[in-house]
Design a protein that fits this description.
By secondary structure, the chain is an alpha+beta fold. The protein is built from five helices and 18 strands.
Length: 301
């Protein structure tokens, strides 16, 4: 849940809440400066916000040059309509280099302002093109994760299991996975520490990831999850973080996907419902609709 930032006496943002999984952190005395990292800002905002930002820059830039043209009468010949609105339309035609041959610079001053505007237009188009290309060309892994993870018996051992599926159904080569447990603990010196423990996977790499992958961690004496219960995980604000990375065979780009599981979505003594079945004619059938469906374990399997 987002809350409005508090303001300190100078009117600048003082407190900002950042939410990640079960962790909520309020940061203070940090001044956001998006203009110092404009590329990252443009890559992070949503598409509607990016389009609105570009449109705003376009309007403001043309309005600025319209004011410059309007400040000196006669700088634009055949101005129509003969007011600031006509100067704005002339500015739009100039910055887009689509002049219609009627309005044109009418003085040396008009030519100077037009030249400056054309230069700004070339730079702005180049910047916007680069941002749009970077947004469109950014690799995106369409990996579908189960909404819950389960702790279930497998071969007589308790196993943490997480299910993932490749929704694009193409080949992702040399896929690797990292599983980690993040929780809050208190040291013997009464110091609160956010601890990150690696959860060793039975298999942490998948040479060809096309359909589904059940990632498993055995809970034995050496496991950070040994002796944990639903209540203890909830009290320590535990979170299980899964990261996948691999190379898309189609584009050759490195894909990355991440998902986290709060303590409340860890199901003890449950198992996933089978996604893969075989039809009577011998064809395997993979049902993506049951990726998050779990059933209680009635007895050890």
């Amino acid at each position: 849940m987002k809350v409005p930032p508090l303001m300190h006496p100078k009117g600048k943002s003082s407190i900002r809440r950042i939410t990640f999984g079960p962790f909520k952190v309020d940061t203070s005395n940090h001044q956001a400066q998006p203009w110092r990292d404009l590329f990252h800002f443009c890559m992070m905002v949503s598409w509607p916000a990016l389009i609105a930002l570009m449109a705003s820059v376009f309007v403001v830039l043309n309005l600025l040059f319209a004011l410059l043209f309007h400040a000196v009468p006669g700088s634009v010949a055949n101005l129509n309509p003969p007011n600031l609105l006509g100067a704005f339309f002339f500015s739009v035609e100039t910055i887009a280099t689509v002049g219609y041959g009627d309005m044109h610079p009418g003085s040396v001053y008009g030519h100077v302002i037009s030249s400056l505007e054309i230069f700004c237009g070339i730079v702005s188009v180049a910047v916007m093109t680069g941002v749009m290309f970077a947004r469109f060309s950014r690799p995106r892994a369409l990996v579908q994760f189960a909404e819950v993870c389960v702790i279930t018996p497998v071969d007589g051992k308790q196993v943490l299991m997480i299910r993932a599926a490749n929704s694009r159904q193409n080949i992702v080569m040399e896929t690797t996975a990292q599983l980690r447990l993040v929780r809050q603990t208190r040291t013997g010196e009464d110091f609160m520490l956010r601890r990150v423990d690696d959860l060793k996977l039975v298999r942490s790499d998948y040479p060809i990831f096309i359909f589904g992958w059940n990632l498993m961690h055995i809970i034995d004496e050496s496991s950070p999850l040994a002796g944990e219960t639903a209540e203890s995980l909830a009290s320590s604000q535990a979170m299980i973080n899964l990261t996948l990375s691999g190379t898309d065979e189609t584009t050759g780009q490195v894909l990355m996907a991440r998902h986290h599981y709060d303590a409340e979505v860890i199901r003890f003594n449950y198992c996933y419902r089978e996604m893969l079945t075989r039809t009577p004619d011998g064809v395997d059938h993979l049902d993506y609709s049951v990726i998050s469906v779990v059933d209680p374990v009635e007895s050890p399997r």
